[in-house]
Amino acid sequence: MKWSVLLCSERARGVHRVNPSDLRSEFQKDYHRIIGSASFRRLQDKTQVFPLDKSDFVRTRLTHSLEVSSFAKSLGQTVFEGIMRSGTDSEVTPSVKEDICSILECAGLIHDIGNPPFGHFGEFAIRDWFKKNLPLLTYRNKRLTELLSSRMQFDFYSFEGNAQALRLLSKLHFLVDANGMNLTFALLNTIIKYPVASDMTDKSCGDIRFKKMGYFYAEEELFKRITAATGSGDKRYPLTYILEAADDIAYKTADIEDACKKGIIDIYTLGKEINGYISACDCPGDKRFCTDAVKRMEHYLKAASEQGVDPAGANAVQNWLIYIQLLMLNGAADSFIKNYDAIMSGTHNRELLADAPVYPIACALSDIAYRLVFLSKPIQKLEISEGIMLDFLLNKFVPAAIEYDSGSMTGINAKLMDMVSENYKYIYRRYAEGADENYRLYLRLLLVTDYICGMTDNYARNLYLELNGIV
């Protein structure tokens, strides 16, 4: 892969007339399209870790996305400055570096834009609902599993916010026409983390490309058009590795900070858990990073106590996490440079942090967040209630959507479909026109997931309450 092709500024709608007074690059124009969009603003009311939280401290998807954007751009600057100085790739010039950093900055802003309400649990709830219910649903006296191809079914069984992001950005965010935000192909390729279809995923194969689905069947032609234009084909787009590392660094540290702020864990528990992980884990990397990290935590706690900071533990955790972020950023940058040839040839099959000496501390933070935060009773209670809400909405809207555009709408189902965004229904009609009935049925199911994924946490909760007569 070559940067002269990878940095493709083509858009689905084609090239606009150039305004000579506009000095922005095409990738800088993407930035302004994103931050001015309603889809981006909705992230302020979507869960990062703590759903429907009333605190103004813990992260939302919006603040998380801003952090990922910042980390991604910083990583791009570090990586490609290093590549220029070493002369590793003569194609990497200051202007190429600037374009790359602009793309990464934008990619961080939109990497979670397709996620449903209630964070990653929302994705799980949608997948779980379809696995349980799709085989039971019928249309004109035939089971949907007889009408939909296996690929169409897998799109719902393996539902992913990543694939939904591509769908939203390229179609659903209606501005001028059915091309969505009409972003550059280089940017869209960066957010396609897994360049495979839903029926090709294989987490056990050892190749990160196959970990999850990257696009829906409905966007397959667009995917092929994007990857042909950028020259990435079925390989992972190089900047995706950097975006992924920025996301990992942001959430691994933010989850811990938010949990400490909410009193779920404290600095003493954190230190104890990291020490325990050192002795138990067998992940690759240098475990001295864990040992040194605990010592640095003690240093920050002592400094905060001596300065009279109250509470000293919370202050120490915040300073310590900044230190950890720097370690992981440097580790990810070094890993990209070290594996540059494999990344550019499309043969590198692991995430950047997995090849960095700092990997054990990254694994320790993930393990602690999972066991002490995500498995905590308060979070589990919230997830149970969120599951009930999403199940209810899917139970109501999926049967209504199956009848939609079929000439046999009943009264209540017609009212339910009237609630769905006109933009989403327009996109359905646009792509259903002239299609066979089975594909139209598939698009009607996507119409429901489009509607639900466009909801904020509070909108989903309020709609659930209203439809249940709880006002």
Q: How would you classify the quaternary structure?
A: single chain
**General shape:** globular
Poorly predicted regions are none
Query: In which order are the strands of the major sheet placed?
Result: 1-2
Range of helix content:
55-70%
Task: Give me the number of helical elements.
Answer: 22
The first-to-last residue Cα distance is: 57 Å
Rg over alpha carbons = 23 Å
* Biggest sheet statistics: 2 strands, antiparallel
**Mean of residue pLDDT values:** 88
Q: In terms of structural class, how would the helical and strand content be classed?
A: mainly alpha
SSE sequence, one letter per element = HHHHHHEEHHHHHHHHHHHHHHHH
How many strands in all?
2
Percent strand: under 5%
Describe this structure in words.
This protein is mainly alpha-helical. The chain has a domain at 265-375. It contains 22 helices and 2 strands. It has helices spanning 3-6, 26-35, 38-41, 61-86, 94-110, 119-133, 144-147, 150-157, 161-172, 185-191, 220-230, 238-261, 267-280, 288-306, 312-338, 340-345, 359-374, 377-403, 411-419, 422-432, 437-453, 457-467; strands at 138-139, 142-143. Strands 1-2 form a two-stranded antiparallel sheet. A hairpin with a 2-residue loop joins strand 1 and strand 2. The chain is globular.
